[in-house]
Each structure stands twice: as structure tokens, then as C-alpha cells.
Amino acid sequence: MRPYFILVRRELGWYAGALSSYVTVAAAQFLLGLGFISLLEAFNGEALNAPLTEVFYDTMYFWLVLLLAPPVITMRLFAQERATGTFETLMTAPVGDAAVVLAKFTAALVFYLVTWAPLLLCLGVVRQYIPEHHPLEWRPVASTLLGIALLGGVYVALGCLASALTRSQILAAVLALALGVTLFLVSFLRASVGAGTDWSAAVVRHVSLLSHMEDFVRGVVDTRPLVFHLSLTAWLVFLTVKVVESRRWK
Amino acid sequence: MSADPAQNGAPMIEVRALTKRYGRQVAVQEVSFTVGPGEVVGLLGPNGAGKSTILRILACYLTASSGTVRVAGRDVFLEADAVRRLIGYMPENNPLYPDLRVREYLRFRARLKGLRGAAVRARVNAVLEQCGLTEVAGKIIGTLSKGYRQRVGLADALVHEPRLILLDEPTIGLDPHQLRAVRDMIRSLARERTILISSHILPEIEATCGRVLIMFAGRILAADTAANLRQRLSAGGEVVLEVAAPPAELQTCWETHPDVARFECAPADDGYVRCVLTPRGETDLRPGLFALAVERGWRLRELTRRQQTLEEIFLRLTRPDAEAEE
């Protein structure tokens, strides 16, 4: 367990010291700010029928941050160490493959959540100036954050896997983005097959991140998406461990 | 460390019939050798001979395709974690994190290798001192010169007081001054630890190692002490001779000389003749030639034996008849 914490600290230290992480946070903040403006426009003194978080979610900026941030955050994790050779010094220290992968995943997830922190600030501002008749409820906010964390887990794990597969950071980012967008686009199949009752419709409904997120922003926490996201994340992290191990039997 | 096999006479490194393949390419083929505790051994061979592969397998970074490798009696595949604790490994090109300060990096590495609390501080200070890094301890690694970086790599390899130190080309790319500093450090370590160094430069290995394993194309061709190796390197070497003598006399003299296998003569300036003589067998021609020059009254201005280069030694060792001699 101890190497895991040492490595998490090291990875977080890297994020704290690198210029690129500040650029990432700034870019995410810019997108969230645009979303915030749309939110204010939606208010415009009128009463809303939906929870605030849902309004925010309806702006495309939400998904932009969700899809773009993880590849940028995770691309360096393994690719950089492999390219510079430090991976060899790291893996010849008495640490397990799983500890290394989990530590990198944890640090990336923590940093991913940090990029979302400005959202809380936005909601705080809204709460300050909110009309009396439309209070900001904490439940949808909490479930939205849970959704962000869960989806983030999947996307960060995907990024880890992509980074472990290559020495090139650019390739890792492109691969993670391609896989991530594909997973996201599967949600749109529900428009064509989602209404049906056959198995394909059931599968699409089950893996539709869009539907899961819609539930979360409305304050609905279903165990099915919960299990889906957690198990998908665990599976991707497991695959990453296997990829890291694979150097031994190549 | 209570059940310590090395104390019971197990060799520090025991490699048996080690083979490593990368796909179809064979990097290391049926290699066997042992290194006793306290020995300093050099792995000498041209690039691509399989030196780095052997070190990587010893450091538990790669696994062997077949054969067994033990460090202090522990199997590198089955007890990788225990073996890693015993080893201080500096990979080729000495990769470091450029964003950390020297002290930060060593503290991180010391913790990762299982040191705790006060021991981390004490050992980091000790290796900073030992490697001459105290004055740059607060500098960012990315800004250091190559010589200092090399010392940081060495400090990292030493920080957890490993019993076995593996250094992959530790002096590559250093200037002569830095080279000497690193060599002196390795020599000072040699007193208390087992060290395995790889290099493709003979004087490098000769300066630091007691025993040398010569590798070529994935095999160990010869294992010998550095002194014996030097002997073998110079034995059988061509002798260059510059004398002032009638060319015809020289010609007949070499043709009838029992120890000269081949010769080449060319006129040099001032009436001297430059002869390059290849001896028959391993004999040293020089004393005989000197006596000959005195006897015949030749003026002699040069008499040297050419050292064989490593390439020539490799070629000689790879010749089938050379193997029969072994």
C-alpha cells in the first residue's frame, strides 16, 4: 500500500508543477464559464421547470469538458515515462505493476476532479443571486457531481489504457479521445433503436452515457449506471495493468 | 534479512542457461555465469551483444524466455519484489525526472525503495555526500550537466544500500574529467558491494573490474580477469619496427625468421624502413628483434606492439579455431 501513496503523491506533485496542467484547468474553466453564461441567460428572471444542474448539463460545454479533459490529463501517464526511459527505473524499484497503475489512475482522477472545481464556484454564485421561488437544491447538485466523478472514472481509465499502449503522448491523447467519443456517440443510437423492446435497444439504453447523465443531473441515482460505470472503470484499469505487465512476456 | 542465502555461500548472481528472445530475434543465448559476493565484474561487448538485456532481466524489468536467474539465491521471476530490494540498478542513459530537485528525487526514490522516516533523510544525505552532490542538492535535475546527472543516477542506485549494484554503461557520454570521477566512485564502492557493469569500452572495464565477461551476439565468449585479458589482447599483436637497414637484407631476414608469419616493409624517411610483422602464434617478437638489431648493427628508432582492438578480439574469439583453443 505504501508505494501506492508515495506514487500518488509524486504524480500529484507533477500535476501541481507542470505548466500544462494549469493550461488544462484554464481551458476547462473557460468552457465552464461559457456554460455559466448560458445558465444565466436561461434564467433571465424567469422561473425554470428543471433543476439548475440540468440546464447547465444541456449546454454542450459540459460534454466538451468531460470528453476533452481526460485525454489531455492522462496522455502523459505512461507514454512520457516510456519515452524518457524513467519507466525502467520506476518498474525496477520494489513496486508492483498494479500499484503503479492504480496510483497513476488515482492521481489523474483527482486532477480531473480539480478541473471541475470551478463548477462549484459557479453554482455558489447562482445560489447567492437565485430568485426566491427557485431555490438551488443540494440533491441534484450532489448527484451531478457523482455523475461527473463516475463518468470521469471511465474516461480517465480509458486514457490510462491509451497511454500505456504507446510511447507517444500525442498518439495516446488521440486514441483516448477517439475511444471516448465513440463510447459517447453510442448514446445517440437510442434515437434510432432506443424506443424498441428488443435486446439491441436494451443494450443501447444500458450503455448510453447520455441517459445515465440525464438521470444524475435530475437527481436520480440508479444503481444500474452506478454498477455499469464502476465495473467499466475497474475493467479498463485491469486492462492497463495487463498492458503494463505485458512488457515482461513480450 | 535474517534468512540470508548469500551468507550461506550462495553466489550473488547465478545465471544458468539464460535465453531471451524478442519475437524471432535472439538477444541472449544460453548464457551462464556466476558472480560471487564482493566481486566487481564487467560485461564487455559491442552494442547489441545482449548486455543490457541481461541487466534488465537481473533487475526484474524483463523476464527470461528460458533459463534461471538468481540473485543472492532468490529467483528473479518468482521473488521479483525481494530481488528488487537487493538491487541498485542504473539503466542505460540514466533516465531521471527532469522536473524534480536532486534532493526531492532521491527522497522519492528512497521512500519508494522502502526506507522510512529518519532513515530517508540520513541515507539521502549520505549518498549526496558520497556522490559529491551536496552543492547541487537544491537544483532541478533538468538543469544539471551530464556528469552531475550521472552521479544522481548512481546516488539513486545506492540510496537503499543494495547488496548488488547493476550499472548499464555508467560512463557513456562523459568527458574525461567526469569519467574519472565516476570511475573513482565505482572503485570506492567496490570494497563493500558486488557490482556488475556493462560497457563496450575495454579501458572502462579494465579500470574498474576484477573480472570480465566478453559478450558477442548474445553469447559469453570468454570470462577472465582484466589482467589476463590485457595479456591476451596484446599477445599475438603485430609489431611495428623502424630500422635503418638494407631492404634486401630485411626481406631475407623476415622470410627466414621462425617466429614471423607475415611481414610488410615500406621505405620511410631518412633511409629508415618501416616493417609491420605479424608473429606466428602468441609470441612477443620485441626482445628478439631488439637483439637482432644490435647483432646486425641496425639503427633502431621504433619498436612497438600494436594493441588489438576489441573488434579484433571479438573476431578472434568468434573464429572457430579460437574456440577450440579455449
Give a short overview.
The complex is a heterodimer of chains A (250) and B (326). Chain A has 250 residues and is an all-alpha fold. Chain A has helices at 2-17, 19-43, 52-58, 60-74, 76-84, 86-91, 97-129, 138-165, 169-185, 190-193, 199-207, 209-217, 223-249.
Give a written overview of the molecule:
The complex is a heterodimer of chains A (250) and B (326). Chain A has 13 helices and no strands. Chain A has helices at residues 2-17, 19-43, 52-58, 60-74, 76-84, 86-91, 97-129, 138-165, 169-185, 190-193, 199-207, 209-217, 223-249. In chain A, helix 4 packs antiparallel against helix 7 and helix 8 crosses helix 9. The radius of gyration of chain A is 19 Å and the shape is globular. The model of chain B is unreliable at 1-6 and 322-326 (pLDDT under 50). In chain B, 37% of the residues lie in helices and 28% in strands. Chain B is elongated and about 80 Å long. Chain B is an alpha/beta fold. Chain A binds chain B through residues 2-3, 6-7, 10, 14, 17-18, 84-89, 91-96, 247-250, and chain B through 22, 56, 59-63, 81, 84-85, 87, 89, 91-93, 95-99, 108-109, 111-114, 156.
Helices and strands, with pairings:
The complex is a heterodimer of chains A (250) and B (326).
Chain A: H1 2-17, H2 19-43, H3 52-58, H4 60-74, H5 76-84, H6 86-91, H7 97-129, H8 138-165, H9 169-185, H10 190-193, H11 199-207, H12 209-217, H13 223-249
Chain B: E1 13-22, E2 25-35, E3 40-44, H1 51-58, E4 66-71, E5 74-75, H2 80-86, E6 87-90, H3 102-112, H4 117-130, H5 146-158, E7 164-168, H6 176-190, E8 194-199, H7 202-208, E9 211-216, E10 219-225, H8 226-234, E11 239-244, H9 247-256, E12 260-267, E13 273-279, H10 286-296, E14 299-305, H11 310-318, H12 320-325
Parallel strand pairs in B: 3-8, 3-9, 6-7, 7-8
Antiparallel strand pairs in B: 1-2, 1-4, 4-5, 9-10, 11-13, 11-14, 12-13
Helix pairs in contact in B: 3-4, 4-5
